[in-house]
Amino acid sequence: MKLLRFAIPLGVFALLVVFLWRGLGRDPHEVPSPLLGKAAPAFALPALSKDDSVVSSDSMRGKVWLLNFWGSWCFACRDEHPTLMRLAAANEVPIVGIDWKDDPSAGKAWLANLGDPYLTTVKDASGVVAIDYGVYGAPETFLIDRQGVIRKKFIGAITDDEIRNELLPLVHQLNQ
Amino acid sequence: MSRIFISLCLVFSAFAMPAHAVEQAASPDSGVAATHAKLDPAMARRLKTLETELRCLVCQNQTLADSEAGLAQDLRNQIEQLALEGKSDEEIKLWLQARYGDFVLYRPPVKPQTWFLWFGPFVLLLAALAFWMWRLASRRVEPRADEPAAEEFEHVLEAATKSS
After folding, report:
1. Tell me, what's the ipTM?
2. Does A159 map to a domain?
3. What's this model's pTM, rounded to 2 decimal places?
4. Which of A54, A127, A160, B116 is the 20 to 30 A CA-CA neighbour of A121?
5. Minimal Cα distance from B26: which residue of A?
């Protein structure tokens, strides 16, 4: 009985510590995507280039590829841009860009001034495709496999560490 | 001193830079006030009620009905379109859940992962009640050694009444 008098509050305290400690490490802005392991939503959007030709997600069938949502209005995308340039230069995985709810001329100027890491860039002016992908901020990046299944999602600016430790190993595995 | 303060503020504001930017452009014909303005009043009320149960993903502590964020406006437009196609509230919620997960619902669904959330408080309450009753019961059975027993009080009482 005497032992219980100490053990119970101590146990409750320890439990609280565990919960609070775990809470410290979690970012409530990282909402887990229900789309992981599911088919990537198909899209057909006009290209950001002059001719506006329609680019369809079907054209990437059979490839392992990245889909990157960005916008010239997005600060974090500016942070991410040099990282994407390095990734594109490594030639490991093609990146398709979606210029999300952007002024097309601002988007074109961005690529002209900062460099273009994308295989193609399409524009999602209404934001409908972004909603299909459960995007709620930019940048967000999806890794899609040969069968068109979403394998991984990166929320926020992708880092060199994430590319080295998470993205590329998965890309190599999916390409085998 | 104030120079130090200002430079500290600058340092911390650099940390506060959003890691994940959010589009905030709002044109005058959009926004909460203009939402569902073209619908008939009953339908607009129905969608408004539905949207108060949905979370704005951008400003996470606001409902979809209250948020001025660009994404919230897009989602309201989508919901309006789905409703005009004849989708029910439940179907619209499923549509959003498929894209944004349970997080979009303010009322989390009851399933194994949320059992602790839904039933935990009641389990804790029952456990506390059980513990409390056990304490009461055990106290009644065995009086503590350092407390005088009832008969001793009677002796004291008797002595007191006799002497008066």
Report:
1. 0.81
2. yes
3. 0.76
4. A160
5. A101
